[in-house]
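Pilot study result, target chain (218 residues):
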Amino acid sequence: MRSARRLLSQLPAPWEATYAAKTRSELLAAYAAWAPTYDADSVDAFGYAAPRAAAEALARHVADVESAAVLDAGAGTGQVGEHLAQLNFTNVVGVDLSEPMLDVARQKGCYRRLLCADLSDPHMLPPASLDAIVCVGTLTPNHVEDGATLRAWLGWLRPGGIFCASIRDDFWSAGAIAGACRRLEEEGTWSLLEETSSRPYTPLVNDVAFAVRTWRVT
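Predicted structure:
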């Protein structure tokens, strides 16, 4: 974890606050404060590249984008949903723990449904009810980085379902997220379909990099 946290200071202050939060209350307060300017900061000022990259990766591996039931895990202000809509995904549910962030997403009209809920709750969605899950900016410290939560998510996918996630290189190298994902591969729970080359995460402000990984559930 230390190797990951050394790079936090490279991010602008609002973003760093979401990683630096020590409690859920602090994390929710950081997102509530940031919600009104999140899109302008992350995309316009920072050049945030992960939402588009993940949506495009998902589209490469979902056969019927118009009918596929998709979960945007950690939907935030709906940036991934916007890109999915542009790629003709029409059946997308967004879930996030921050109601102020979801208030912004609702204005975009790109989700079938938006839920303010805890993604670590395995009963949040019915078993085998999804064709795909896309996760951007959520497999990170202070958010989700444990195998138990990943397993809960995979329980919502139908056999052959797709899981697509953007993960910062420094967080992947830190080990917790990578270890959980590799254990699922070793157990035969899912198989890696694609790993993109690393690219700049927020190219207008720093040199942090990320990759998008896509798995298929067995």
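One observation from the pilot: Confidence is low (pLDDT under 50) at residues 1-9. A full batch analysis is planned for the follow-on phase.
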